[in-house]
Amino acid sequence: MLSNIYIPEALAHLPSISDGDVSFVYYDQHSNGLRNRVVFNKNAISFIINGEKHLCTSGGTAIIGVNEAVVIPEGNSIISERSLNAGRYNSLVIAFPTTRLSAFLQTIPASKASEHLEELPFIRVDKYLAQYIAQIVALIESKTQLSPALVAHKFHELLLILMEENPATAAFLRKLAANNNDTSLKNIVENHLHQNISISELAFLSNRSLSTFKRDFEKNYGVPPAKYIREKRLEIAATELLKGRQASELYMDYGYENLSSFVQAYKKKYGVTPGRATTSV
């Protein structure tokens, strides 16, 4: 059984600047691309400097690349990281408690609510943000000692940039501060039907043991989770086939180890092979 990684505790040995609550950590590691179960005891913002991060939270899944970032809410996540070149995977991670975010938001005017609240909004790194990241990394690498007040100032500067430049991120941060992160069973299951994720991983994301997850799931849905998810994924796959996609493009996305298993399951449910799928499905 995989052991959990706890953030920010697991980053304590890495170069950083901190005021005790908020930490800026320069993460520079050889990464093997394996999926890890990560428990975030604080919220985090991860800026990718080199490489790619695959992130799965209770709210959804995202792939974040170079010059992109994402806000990761406190709670359980499944993460894999890898370099896409000969260099090491590296990123700048800012870990912070919700209380510090809430205190900052009280100092600025309320912004207009975003029409579309994304579960994991992307942050595009523009020239201003790139300069900000480079400055923080330079401070960390030079082992510059900053006072708690200066660390807090740099944190507030980052939040202000994100709040002013990205309405989706601003809405997400306000939702985070209000503790409105939906970790309900239905939300977690429905948000991951399109991803190849195991029942045990869904249980982890919901912060339940596998046995509790199965029991709660059957209580809510009336069927075992494996059967419900399998049937739902086949329905989604059928819709994708009608749009012109090929079975060979779909089977791995919907949890099948090989094409023949997908074809067999599809034929059992619909009476025809995916290649003969019609609008009558």
Topology:
Elements: E1 5-7, E2 16-18, E3 23-29, E4 36-40, E5 43-50, E6 52-57, E7 60-64, E8 68-72, E9 75-82, E10 89-96, H1 98-105, E11 122-124, H2 127-141, H3 148-165, H4 167-177, H5 185-191, H6 199-205, H7 210-221, H8 225-242, H9 247-250, H10 259-270
Parallel strand pairs: 1-4
Antiparallel strand pairs: 2-3, 3-10, 4-9, 5-8, 5-10, 6-7, 6-9, 8-11
Helix pairs in contact: 1-4, 3-4, 6-7
Summarize the structure.
This protein has 281 residues and is of the alpha+beta class. It folds into 2 domains: 5-177, Sandwich (Jelly Rolls), CATH 2.60.120.280; 185-276, Homeodomain-like (Arc Repressor Mutant, subunit A, Orthogonal Bundle), CATH 1.10.10.60.
Give a written overview of the molecule:
There is one protein chain. This protein has 281 residues and is α+β, with helices and mostly antiparallel strands. The protein folds into 2 domains: 5-177, Regulatory protein AraC (Jelly Rolls); 185-276, Homeodomain-like (Arc Repressor Mutant, subunit A), CATH 1.10.10.60. Helices cover 40% and strands 22% of the residues. It contains 10 helices and 11 strands. The chain has helices at 98-105, 127-141, 148-165, 167-177, 185-191, 199-205, 210-221, 225-242, 247-250, 259-270; strands at 5-7, 16-18, 23-29, 36-40, 43-50, 52-57, 60-64, 68-72, 75-82, 89-96, 122-124. The chain has a 6-stranded antiparallel beta sheet with strand order 2-3-10-5-8-11. Strands 1-4-9-6-7 form a 5-stranded mixed beta sheet, with helices on one face. A hairpin with a 2-residue loop joins strand 6 (52-57) and strand 7 (60-64). Helix 1 (98-105) crosses helix 4 (167-177) and helix 3 (148-165) packs across helix 4 (167-177). It is elongated and about 70 Å long. The model has no long low-confidence stretch (mean pLDDT 88).
